[in-house]
Amino acid sequence: MPRTVIVGAGAVGLACAYALRKRGEDVIVVDRDAPGQACSKGNAGWITPSLSAPIPAPGLVGQSLRWMLSAESPLFIDPLAVPRMAPWLWQFWRHCTESDYMRGLAAVAALNHNTMRLWDEWQREGVGCELHREGLLFIFLDPAKLRATHAEFALLRQFGYTTPEILDGAGARRMEPSLSERVVGGFLVAGEYHVRPETFSAGLLSRLEALGVEVQSGVAVTGWDRDGGQVLGIRTSRGSITADRFVVAAGSWTGLLTQMLGVKLPMQAGKGYSLTISQPSITLGRPLYLGDAKIGVSPFDGALRFAGTMELSGINLRLDPRRMIGLRRGIDRYFRQAFPRDAGEEWVGMRPLTPDGLPIIGRLRDVGNVYVASGHAMLGITLAPSTAEVIADLVTLGTASLDIAPFAAGRFL
Ligand SMILES: Cc1cc2nc3c(=O)[nH]c(=O)nc-3n(C[C@H](O)[C@H](O)[C@H](O)COP(=O)(O)OP(=O)(O)OC[C@H]3O[C@@H](n4cnc5c(N)ncnc54)[C@H](O)[C@@H]3O)c2cc1C
Known about the structure:
The chain is built from 11 helices and 21 strands. The protein has helices at 11-22, 60-67, 82-94, 98-111, 115-124, 143-154, 169-175, 197-210, 254-259, 321-332, 380-397, and strands at residues 3-7, 26-30, 46-47, 75-77, 131-132, 136-140, 166-168, 185-189, 193-195, 214-216, 221-227, 230-236, 239-242, 245-248, 268-278, 288-290, 295-300, 303-312, 345-353, 360-363, 370-374. Helix 5 (115-124) packs across helix 11. The two termini are 34 Å apart. The mean pLDDT is 95. Flavin-adenine dinucleotide (FAD) is lined by residues 7-13, 30-33, 37-40, 43-46, 220-221, 249-251, 253, 257, 272-274, 296, 307, 349, 351-352, 374, 376-382.
């Protein structure tokens, strides 16, 4: 039986392992840490195909330059990191056009086409996790922002999504009584899910164990053994592992790994922060998107998680307290009661980010048996099953059932 090694045991790597194992492949997963401990841990866990739009968007350049002046803004580019990140930032800004935005939206919407079906299917197959199905409620303090965000949803109609009805403030409060009087309205995106992401990794892990997949923790990949256009094995902190195929699903570190193979992929970290409050004083019926502050709120069993901010400061896990202050300040205006300033568990994670905002899913051109599944930015949990199915198709059949050209690694060459 051909053997595939997957590098990275985040949501994407574990999902790829599951999809490949279901096709009868022999799979080994290696991670330098324990599974699911990087970006796949403290995120908001939304499963939200309606947010398929890429991050580089028309108008973002001007807005991000203004936001650079405040460390508490929703998008912060660290001026000290700019020289190091300049080539990547230049490419990112070049993709902030109407045409690239619409092309990216169409590609990700197509990739998301099977997302909800796969999430339901994987649940039925025994990937146990804390999954909720109450949709997402967008709420706003500023009526102009409400109208602008709602208009973006209208773009999704061409991909088969219905445009949600606008609610006024009273309507939003009827759905969520803990919202403050300052909330002027919102809209409910029905039919979307959210998961406690830690339980998704744990559920996949126990399913993989039951299916006989070896998941090795504490194994850092340090190099590749290569023979021309083929990789023979990986070198790791615990010795070499040979295999027939390799999938790099190493999140923000993906570019560093492919660089060791001589393949440059422009992967940066879009750092995000979260705050998880256990046994919170308010309960919510569904997740909320605090539209003006760009903060997501996810109610889990016995906890509330607030997640947001996008910080471009390079690949590092430094937690900037100013960003946490921005997150905490952003929350208070939306609720009748304030949360204690020191409440909650603080977390920082690195969203793997490409300059066009689209993931990289596919085979490397010059190294025929290496595949990449990474760069999912704000949608790695949502897209993990759909990505895994594409990778399983490519590895076992040599072709995918949807057009994956927009996700090709070679687009950056
Ligand atoms: C604040 C925040 C909120 C978010 N909210 C959502 C949301 O609501 N919905 C959604 O869909 N997405 C969300 N995301 C995005 C999502 O979390 C990521 O896209 C996703 O977790 C990426 O998963 P991954 O498996 O690609 O990477 P990771 O989870 O980062 O996993 C990569 C793994 O590779 C391993 N690795 C790296 N280098 C090596 C090496 N050399 N050797 C061995 N192992 C290595 C790492 O240890 C790590 O375990 C959010 C992100 C943030 C930060």
